[in-house]
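Exercise 7. Predict the joint structure of the components listed below.
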Amino acid sequence: MKRLIALGAFAALASTTAGAATITIVNQDAAGEGFNDPTPVAALPSNPFTTRGAQRLHVFQTAANQWGALLQSSIEIRVQAAFNPLTCSGTSATLGSAGALTVHADFPNAPVAGVWYCPALANSLANSDLGAGTNDINSQFNSDIDLGTCLTGTTGWYYSTAASDATPAGYIPLLPVVFHELAHGLGFQTFTSSSTGAFFSGTPAIWDTFLADATTGTTWINMADNATRQASAISDPNLIWKGPNVTAEQGNFLLGAPILRITAPAAILGDKTAQAAAFGTYAPAGGLPGEIVAAADGAGASTLDGCEALTNAAQISGKIALMVRGNCNFTVKVKNAQNAGAIAAVIDNNAASGLPGMGGSDPTVTIPSLGISQADGNAIRAQLALPTTVNGTLTYLPTLAGTQVSGGTRYVRMNAPNPVQPGSSVSHWTVDTFPNLLMEPALNTSIFDDVDLTIPLFKDIGWNLATPDVLFGDGFE
Ligand SMILES: [Zn+2]
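Solution:
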């Protein structure tokens, strides 16, 4: 199962779709650095260039072309871009930042009067260049990532432009970061202060006509004063997006939190909290049932960890493989289960608290997998030892993760941590959605070229699509 709106699939449409936007990079870097860095590098399967700067430009232009293929505009969108040293430590780093360079209100054809629009959208709607000769978006990306001095264990950026050209361990893919930052510049932001609640130059943003408090239902534009908006910005989980397109399409992109539902034996029935893997696929929305069988590999530090080829493939084939955490990467375990014919894998924790992280990347893994607690794993193993057949279903809680009800309608939540995090609060989705979304505040390794709910949000704020709408909202497959 994968989500649609994989931007990579749209590259071929760019030249055939009438009305698609042209997004032009305005390289801000000096000779010999950033996008002009002459350092020789090896060509990648999806990036044929052989200098670091040229590979960076190719990733950027790929993302720009693919956004351009999705959005309708007759006016060129000009994006300033540079690689610069940004915030960076061993434990956290700013990967990139971007935003609109100007704001526009009450232009010809403005759908809503008295609110700010970003220039790319305002130009598109006005069908003229409102700021002729000026650039529309400013963006920068963290050059220190390639020094290997940020984020302990990180070697550098990976300049792939195709999901099949998988990011190796220790690298950060640039492409999803460019998609994310360009989306901010294309309108995924408010101009109102998340710290003070004050409108920019006294005028609200189109964003504020959809941003709302779930308890009162009031949108930011209609709140009584700055203090009310300031409080709303830190009101997690009550900051919601009331746009009609996002609200209508949320169920096509979101699921409930993943669970392992034990359906037999009676002694251990019930929904077990689970962590879905960042790699492989997700179980279908209707669930994936199967018999749970403990994997055996007959070698290594543990014969139950699935770190070597499974020796009980005859028992595992067609079943859900149970493997204990530890001794190798999650991707190795799940791949071994897949090679043995398993339809899914469940990894039980080797520590008393929490769930296995289930991180990693391996595009050859095609089965879904979940991490469960040590206690739940022990309970399953105790039944298997009797021996008793254990059946389970990889499925989801009924409530869409990262949503909140307001006035009887369910809405997607926005990021509203307390205390406020300028640059992260309000102009991103909540971090609680499942699956993860492109426009969450932190990069999720499960996302490479999906733009998911960003498109319905762009429709809410006024964008017209260049790509026929029938391609969207088809949901999970
Ligand atoms: Zn962001």
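Discussion. Residues 1-17, 470-477 have pLDDT under 50 and may be disordered.
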